[in-house]
Design brief:
26 strands; 6-stranded antiparallel β-sheet
Length: 584
């Protein structure tokens, strides 16, 4: 591979995967669509670690993202021809095993590449009863591997943004105390990490763009840590201040974005258009990282099963009550049994499906026998002796294991973060100087460096007549999960709308609009530079996505539910043509 050029131009770094199972052709598309210096892939998520943990139980040689290897069968040669280095966290629970597999593949396809990996995140032996336990490492190990000449770097559980900040520190030869520069790269990394979510995918205002097949994003990162988010020419989707704002708000909690290399101040991020499909990120301030690392822990939580009854036509509530009564004896002794009635039925409906509601029973228990086929078969035995029109969506099935996700903290200095270089040398990565506690604020001497104040908090809601309409008529939203917590980011596109949003969408109003959040602690975090509010809801997802605690276990659509809720909006803020569902 060609050597790295002098760092007198921006680093051009792309993303080709936002999750394990993302578009398979993306690696090839990114390598052939335009120039790149580094191509990254994010394959890990909380649920993925559980999946890989179960893979490792079946075969200790596995535990990594197998699709990454299949993508490299063609991609390795393309990257070598174009001088592109590849950095991916596809190593999962077995980065050394994946590195060896990449070397075998390289020999097979005749591509002379050097491979390195990062390890030390696996703390499973230290967590009793854990299926997996992995510390979220920073980008310094990736930096060391690239400095040693690696063409391909695979890692275990590093933070998603480290896939970008690590290469940026290598390209510009940053040091651990380059906090503002590192913070800028972390913010760019957070925008890239979920792939096409930055280019119009899952975007609140998707009807304004052609997002049938959005291209994957890339960043042009400069030596000062600023960046331009863009995509290859001719690819689908769009890059706008709105799409970048949406991704910045995704799965974040508070104004301080805590990381193992740096704490990025999200309240200092400034976005501006830089041409068609180009958005500049600038002004990001960084603080030293906390002294601890997050450790994600997955466990097998027990066994679950479910039955979905279809209730059609009249007397929906009475039909649901009858089924619940008929199954009450069978559910005695089951640890948890949750009933949910989704009123998907319509009055005087023109089709049978739109005349039907869904009654969902979800059962969980430490024993597979109590929630196994015997229980679901009992539900089916009601078929000729229950409500009129009885039927279910699927036949009775056996119990399935479910997982739980929790997170803990561990001292960063005690985690054996290790870069295994292409020649086999093992390089220990020291934890950077840190705060004594997470989120303690800027370190001494830095308190005077304020956030941007380009857009003030509030300023008085606009006066004048109002119209009852969905919040989504003026605001975008994006939501997601962090273990058992959820976040909802809400933003608007003008200063006047921001003043109204800030003054109107209080925590209390948020909980009124989303009544399911009322039993939970909700915190509101204003981000005036982004004209945004970020809400965190503690514990609403129970033990995390793998436990299937909610109908929407990753809170992906929580933001869209919020946008669909109606409130009084100043009439002059509303577009001439409001979104579907807006009333007079």
């Amino acid at each position: 591979m060609t050597p790295r050029p002098p760092a007198d131009r921006p680093l051009r770094i792309g993303n080709a995967s936002g999750f394990y199972g993302d578009r398979f052709d993306a690696l090839r598309e990114m390598l052939t669509g335009g120039p790149l210096d580094v191509l990254t892939g994010d394959y890990l998520a909380e649920l993925t670690m559980l999946i890989l943990g179960r893979d490792r139980l079946k075969n200790p040689d596995l535990g990594y993202a197998k699709t990454f290897l299949r993508q490299l069968e063609e991609g390795l040669g393309l990257a070598h021809e174009r001088g592109v280095r590849i950095v991916a966290n596809a190593g999962g629970l077995n980065p050394a095993g994946l590195a060896d597999a990449v070397r075998v593949l390289a020999a097979k396809v005749g591509v002379p590449v050097t491979v390195a990996h990062v390890e030390g995140d696996d703390l499973t032996p230290h967590e009793d009863g854990a299926l997996t336990a992995n510390a979220y490492l920073g980008g310094a190990g990736i930096t060391a591997c690239l400095r040693a000449g690696a063409d391909v770097v695979v890692t275990g559980r590093v933070t998603d943004a480290a896939l970008v900040s690590g290469p940026a520190a290598w390209w510009f030869d940053w040091t651990p105390d380059d906090h503002d520069r590192l913070a800028g790269a972390v913010v760019a990394g957070h925008v890239l990490e979920c792939g096409t979510q930055a280019t119009g995918g899952n975007y609140a205002f998707f009807t304004a763009h052609d997002v049938r097949r959005p291209g994957f994003p890339l960043a042009e990162i400069s030596a000062d840590g600023s960046a331009v988010i863009t995509k290859h020419p001719g690819t689908g989707g769009t890059v706008s201040v709105g799409t970048v704002t949406a991704q910045l708000l995704y799965e974040t909690q508070g104004v301080r974005y805590l990381g193992p290399d740096v704490t990025a101040r999200l309240d200092t991020v400034h976005l501006s258009e830089d041409g068609p499909d180009r958005v500049r990120i600038s002004g990001v301030l960084g603080e030293p990282p906390p002294s601890t690392l997050k450790v994600g822990v997955t466990r097998i939580g027990g066994w679950r099963n479910e039955v979905v009854f279809v209730l059609t036509g009249l007397d929906i509530e009475a039909k649901a009550a009858l089924v619940r009564t008929q199954l009450s004896d069978a559910l005695e002794g089951v640890a948890t049994a949750d009933w949910t009635l989704a009123r998907t039925d319509h009055e005087d409906a023109p089709t049978q499906e739109t005349a039907s509601a869904l009654l969902r029973l979800v059962v969980r228990d430490p024993s597979p026998d109590r929630v196994g086929r015997a229980l679901t078969s009992t539900a089916i035995e009601l078929a000729l002796g229950s409500y009129p029109g009885f039927h279910v969506t699927t036949p009775p099935g056996p119990a399935q294991p479910y997982g739980t996700f929790t997170s803990t903290l561990t001292p960063a200095a005690e985690v054996p973060h290790t870069a295994v270089l292409p020649n086999g040398t093992r390089l220990s990565i020291s934890a950077p100087p840190a705060f004594e506690e997470r989120g303690a604020g800027r370190s001494p001497g830095l308190e005077a460096a304020p956030a941007f104040e380009a857009r003030p908090f509030g300023g008085g809601a606009p006066a004048g007549p109002t119209t009852r309409a969905p919040l989504g008529a003026v605001a975008g939203a994006r939501s997601g999960d962090k273990g058992g917590d959820a976040n909802v980011g809400v933003w608007v596109e003008s200063d006047e709308a921001w003043h109204w949003l800030h003054d109107t969408l209080t925590t209390e109003v948020f909980q009124d609009l989303l009544p399911e959040t009322r039993p939970h602690a909700v915190r509101r975090h204003p981000l005036p530079n982004l004209r945004a509010l970020n809400f965190t809801i503690t514990g609403i997802l129970g033990a995390g996505v793998a436990s299937g605690h909610r109908f929407d276990p990753q809170a992906k659509a929580l933001g869209e539910w919020l946008r669909a809720r109606h409130l009084d909006i100043p009439t002059h803020l509303l577009p001439e043509t409001a979104p579907e569902g807006t009333g007079p």
